[in-house]
Amino acid sequence: MLERIRIVMVGTTHPGNIGAAARAMKTMGLSDLCLVAPKQFPCAEASSLASGATDLLGQARVCESLDDALADCTMVVGTSARQRHVPWPCVTPRQLGGALVTELERQEQGRVAILFGREDRGLTNDELQRCNWHVTIPANVEYGVLNVAAAIQVLCYEMRLAVLGDDIEVARPDARSRQHSMPLPEVVWDEPLATSEALEGMLVHLEKVAVRAGFLDPQQPAMVMKRLRRLFLRARPDKMEASILRGILSSLDKQLDRLPDDE
């Protein structure tokens, strides 16, 4: 499972943070590192601070856009220290660990991406709106500043703990295991979840059709598309559902093409 968790660093300014992040990942058993438009990479400083994790740097994927980094992912989580104007589902690292185990067990081939932003300002609002969830490290209220590599270490630790467990905790008697309860029936979904690439294409198509139909004013879109984006990311449609929605939008496009210009 740890191999299917992708750490995505967006717009990293200091190459040393990339090396420190690789070290943090390897220590916790993660290996999928993706860099989106780093200011400087490869770099000797990154290799120096990787301290034995240079193999992760050598296999790290460098992408020009976030679209490329997320194309094959079925879940995207963005790190953020605060909520934006439009609230988004937000969890702690501990809560995220348990949820990702469930996600990875359910999706045999799916990958999960955890996004980390720039050192000075984090992720942009648009980047955070690409995410199913946000995760916030509950730090000191008086000083909640955390280096990006340190934040990656915290998240990677929680992912490892969730996947592999804690030997000390495992050795203790677990009262919950002695509870008698009827198990839920197993649900085997008939389609894999839609990838980030498929959802993004559907949302872009939806916005275009909404503009053509006169529902959305491109000059004054207000919060409509942000809320629709939040809706679909929260719902997490599968591959077939996303395809059906694209089919509906294509049909509407054709109907709009047949209308006279004055209509």
Question: What's the arrangement of secondary structure elements?
Answer:
Elements: E1 5-10, H1 15-28, E2 32-36, H2 44-50, H3 54-59, E3 61-63, H4 66-70, E4 73-79, E5 90-91, H5 93-106, E6 111-116, H6 125-128, E7 133-135, H7 148-164, H8 167-171, H9 196-212, H10 224-235, H11 239-258
Parallel strand pairs: 1-2, 1-6, 2-3, 4-6, 4-7, 5-7
Helix pairs in contact: 1-2, 1-7, 5-7, 9-11
Could you explain the architecture of this structure?
The structure is a single chain. The protein has 11 helices and 7 strands. The protein is an alpha/beta fold and 263 residues long. The protein starts with a strand and ends in a 5-residue tail after the last helix.
Short account of what is shown:
With 263 residues, the protein is of the alpha/beta class. Helices cover 46% and strands 12% of the residues.
Essential attributes:
Alpha/beta knot, 11 helices, 2 domains, seven-stranded parallel β-sheet, alpha/beta, Helicase, Ruva Protein, domain 3, globular
User: From the coordinates shown, what is the CATH architecture of the largest domain?
Assistant: 3-Layer(aba) Sandwich
The helix content is: 40-55%
Largest sheet: 7 strands, parallel
Overall number of strands: 7
The helix/strand class is alpha/beta
What is the rounded Rg? 21 Å
What CATH calls the topology of the largest domain is: Alpha/beta knot
SSE order: EHEHHEHEEHEHEHHHHH
* Strand neighbour order, sheet with most strands: 3-2-1-6-4-7-5
Q: Look at the structure and give the mean pLDDT.
A: 89
The tally of domains stands at: 2
Number of helices: 11
Strand coverage percent? 5-15%
Distance between the termini: 54 Å
CATH class categorisation of the largest domain: Alpha Beta
